[in-house]
Amino acid sequence: MLIVGETGTGKELAARAIHYLSARTEGPFVPINCGSLPDTLIGRELFGHLRGAFTDAREARQGLIAQAEGGTLFLDELETLSSHGQVALLRFLQDYEYRPLGAARSQAANVRVIGATNADLAELSDNGHFRRDLLYRLNVLTVDVPPLRARDDDALLLAQAFLRKFCDRYETSQRSFHPKAIEALLAYHWPGNIRELENLIHREFLLADAPELVLAALPRSAPAERRVILRRRADAPRAVPSGAAGVKFRAAKARAIAEFEREYIRDLLQQSAGNVSLAARLAGKERSRFNRLVRKYHFNAREFRNPAQSPGS
Q1: 220-241: per-residue pLDDT in tens?
Q2: Which strand (E) or helix (H) includes residue 170?
Q3: What's the predicted TM-score (pTM) here?
Q4: CB–CB of 63/47 below 8 Å?
Q5: Measured between alpha carbons, how far is 159 from 201 in angstroms, rounded to an integer?
Q6: Which phi and psi angles does 23 have, rounded to 5°?
Q7: CATH number of 2-144, picked from 3.30.420.140, 3.40.50.150, 2.60.40.180, 3.40.50.300
């Protein structure tokens, strides 16, 4: 399984939820940051070694795969894995067998592998920086964790949850947010996503001397993408949307999101004259993810181009 999303969106939390809500919940969850694996020690770290396998190997040591037996091995920041590490991981994923350093025979592993990245692995593969065959092995199921700015009012819900958590941790009476703080929470674009939000609430909680948090340090301005969302919220009628009567909340919400996405993508394609790369930059999304939205709503970027433009312009 592969989990993709920007830094701070909660990819490891999603991986833990998958693990603890699955049949492997009784097994271990073993997280590892691929950037912390030294290129010369990747084999030992993943597969372990026997006593006497090399100088200073005074005792046998289990590798990360053996430690995750019966559970989940979580490989974070996959894009930082070296070419040597990619080969080692690919070989293991082919048949789920590995051989500890110094061992004469291979061992079979019973482990779920979840990878996570904030990079476009397909693009890295096109540029020769990530093995395409490894991408295929990992990308059996994909979970795309959206950025906080694209998650409606989740910023407020998460902020309230973090505030309750800190009140319990520091054993204080429950606190709340000032109305202007709520407005700022919803308007801010959260480039650092949930991690930035949690750290902000923690800091403001510690510095606050009143029962209501004001969030004075939080910028009140929002980028173009978020301003469009807020403006449309303000302009939208407060009545039930057309066709929503008698429809369950989840279905009505999904329909409203789809309508917004469709119009938002259409506006950006018109603004960029069909230039998908420019439209993706305006949206603050990677080109491949934006292009998936274009295909999802069956837009043809060529139809938005100025007829006076040459095909290559």
Answers
A1: 554 444 444 444 444 444 445 5
A2: none
A3: 0.67
A4: yes
A5: 7
A6: -70, -10
A7: 3.40.50.300
